Amino acid sequence: LLVYDLTKSRNRAETQAFYDREFKALDDLQATQVVAAIKDPFIWSEDFRILPIVPPQGQILATIPPAESSAELADELRRASSCFETLHIIHSKQVIHRALTPAAIVMQGTGAQQKAIFTNFFAARIEEQSIALQLDLLELTDPYAHPALAASYGQANRATDQYSLALIFLERVSRQAVADLRRDTRALPNLYTRWSNAPQQVIQELTELFDSLLNGDIAQPRDARAVGTIFGDLATRLNPKNVSQPTEQLLDKRY
Fold this sequence. Notes:
The protein has 8 helices and 11 strands. The termini are far apart. It has a 3-stranded antiparallel sheet, with no helix packed on it. The chain has a 3-stranded antiparallel sheet with strand order 6-8-9.
């Protein structure tokens, strides 16, 4: 249950409108099946509004150990592919998340069948309207947020969401702290050394992909679905044996 305390604001009507916007944003995304399920809100006394949320099944990205082998790196890139597909879906609904972190992503399934569920939409913007209007004026506090948001969260757009996802996965595949990575994203960590046993052409293209997402012009965001496809292709080239095969073929190999 998400409990909204209506007494914490001097303007109860404004607070009520804020909570209505949050519910509408989440409700509009329900059909996509990439956000946590919610039920209709209800009033509990005059001072509290209750929004029932069904926590998604799966594993929170922050709890999944980083990759140690090329096969695990391929799985990591498939997770990235799934996340960018989910990002494409919520962006197609005119929603900017603005608060993507490893704790806000739940992974379901395995291998190529993975799906990413996004949570924590407290900072989201729907079209040109923020769920929490006051966030537009807040200074940067999220370690995964684009530096442009240091002026205000009102600067967020599709590209800044893509930046956050890219930083999340660069942290995971490089094994470097996000604070060190964001200090200067133009000097990316040496993934060639970290993944010396992987095909170096794949690592080069992966490095170039991270560079374009972290250092590109935020006025010209990339297509998130296309980015997800690139991550998926790189994963397949890293570990082609992990591509799903019909059951009959697997059985035939036993005889």
